[in-house]
């Protein structure tokens, strides 16, 4: 019986906009001091899973997180823009209070910086799924039975990827807890190619904010 293949999905470390509760979308913001510490703490734990392939979103916060994994694994990360976060449209750069001031408190009530909100110019769940699910399937298909691949990406898009890979309706992604910065999920391919969620929101330990 062939050994299982594994796909590990890592969310990037914290940024200043994460700390302020701002929707980042495609804005290219790097890690802050805590995000760098989170990535350094996460990297050796994920590296212990012995990955043979490392792929990352092309945005700075993901690439900088992947750089710690490069150091820990000896792998060279491949950047794929399909792994980017939602384009958050009119919400980009705004906190809940700032967005509510523009569109009204009732319209902004469902705002969750980790999930989809219907905003002008924003990608839909389906649009994110159309790019991210095939990209992650390709990553998994590149490794042999018994091997592990790692992808570094973003919180809301990561949840859509999990839902799509498992064959769930993409809207079910909002039923998953928001992934912590530098948290990860593990999907394991069982016999017959079926994927199962083996772990979710794993962390190497919480680093207190200072």
UniProtKB/TrEMBL annotation:
SUPFAM superfamilies the record matches: Phosphoglycerate mutase-like
SMART domains per the UniProt record, alphabetical: PGAM (SM00855)
Residues annotated to bind substrate: 11-18, 61
GO molecular function annotation: phosphatase activity
CDD domains referenced in this protein's UniProt entry, alphabetically: HP_PGM_like
InterPro entries: His_Pase_superF_clade-1 (IPR013078), His_PPase_superfam (IPR029033), PGM_Phosphatase (IPR050275)
This protein's GO CC annotations: cytoplasm
Domain of life, source organism: Bacteria
Active site: 12 (tele-phosphohistidine intermediate), 85 (proton donor/acceptor)
PANTHER family in the cross-refs: BROAD-SPECIFICITY PHOSPHATASE YOR283W-RELATED, GLUCOSYL-3-PHOSPHOGLYCERATE PHOSPHATASE
Record-given protein name: Probable phosphoglycerate mutase
Source organism (scientific name): Nocardioides scoriae
């Amino acid at each position: 019986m062939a050994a299982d293949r594994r796909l590990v999905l890592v969310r990037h470390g914290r940024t200043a906009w994460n700390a302020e509760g701002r929707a980042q979308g495609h804005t290219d913001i790097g890690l802050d001091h805590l995000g760098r510490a989170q990535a350094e703490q996460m990297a050796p734990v994920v590296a212990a899973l012995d990955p043979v392939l490392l792929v990352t979103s092309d945005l700075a916060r993901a690439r900088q997180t992947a750089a710690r994994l490069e150091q820990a694994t000896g792998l060279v990360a491949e950047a794929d823009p399909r792994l980017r976060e939602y384009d958050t449209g009119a919400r980009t750069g705004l906190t809940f209070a700032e967005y509510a001031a523009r569109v009204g408190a009732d319209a902004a009530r469902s705002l969750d910086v980790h999930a989809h909100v219907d905003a002008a110019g924003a990608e839909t769940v389906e649009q994110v799924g159309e790019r991210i699910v095939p990209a992650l399937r390709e990553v998994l298909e590149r490794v042999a039975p018994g091997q592990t691949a790692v992808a570094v990406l973003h919180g809301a898009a990561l949840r859509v990827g999990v839902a799509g890979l498992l064959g769930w309706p993409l809207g079910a992604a909002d039923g998953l807890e928001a992934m912590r910065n530098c948290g990860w999920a593990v999907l394991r391919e069982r016999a017959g190619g079926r994927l199962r969620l083996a772990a979710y929101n794993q962390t190497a330990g919480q680093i207190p904010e200072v």
